[in-house]
Design a protein that fits this description.
Largest sheet: 3 strands, antiparallel
Shape: globular
Distance between the termini: 30 Å
CATH superfamily of the largest domain: [2Fe-2S]-binding domain
CATH topology of the largest domain: DNA polymerase, domain 1
Radius of gyration: 16 Å
Order of helices and strands: HEEEHHHHH
Strand content: 5-15%
CATH architecture of the largest domain: Orthogonal Bundle
Number of helices: 6
Number of strands: 3
Strand order of the largest sheet: 2-1-3
Length: 176
């Protein structure tokens, strides 16, 4: 979990979200709908985004879980993750309830795009026949691409335009 191994004795019905929040005190991931529909509980499991309210904790044995609390921890110097900085710079949140899930999902989408994984809106002729496109994604992470890739994360405040701008800023910075 965020680079630290944890051993927990949990009931086999305990969700990853409940284990994170109630057993480990990692309250960044939020319980929104508890049905996998809002994305407030999004975390990274082995680098892939996942709704932690739908995952059983016991099934995550041996996986690397990254929560919003662990995003800035990569450098160990107290610096924010580039996406966290971009969210602040773009004022990409209002109440902040969805922000941890939005951030984890955005980290996942940047990795997916860099690996050349297309989204629903990626044009079929994008990329090269020899493999995935260059870092930045097969469609260059246009606003439409970012919106589609973040469509599983809801924001009741409607901060979507600023969230898209923050993700685009981070993708552009990473491409430099």
């Amino acid at each position: 979990m965020n680079g630290t191994a944890h051993t927990l004795d949990v009931d086999h019905r305990t969700t990853l979200l409940d284990a994170l929040r109630e057993r480990l005190g990692l309250t960044g991931a939020k319980k929104g709908c508890d049905h996998g529909q809002c994305g407030a509980c999004t975390v990274l499991v082995d680098g892939r985004r996942a709704n932690s309210c739908l995952l059983l904790a016991v099934a995550q044995d041996g996986t690397e879980i990254t929560t919003v609390e662990g995003l800035a921890g990569d450098a160990g110097d107290g610096e924010l993750h580039p996406l966290q900085r971009a969210f602040l710079d773009r004022d990409a949140f209002q109440c902040g309830y969805c922000t941890p899930g939005q951030l984890c999902s955005a980290v996942g989408l940047l990795a997916e795009a860099a690996a050349g994984h297309p989204s629903y809106v990626t044009p079929p002729d994008t990329g090269s026949p020899d493999g995935p496109a260059s870092p930045g994604g097969p469609a260059g992470l246009t606003p439409a691409e970012i919106r589609e890739r973040l469509s599983g994360n809801l924001c009741r405040c409607g901060a979507y335009p600023r969230i898209v701008e923050a993700v685009a800023d981070t993708a552009a910075e990473a491409a430099r």
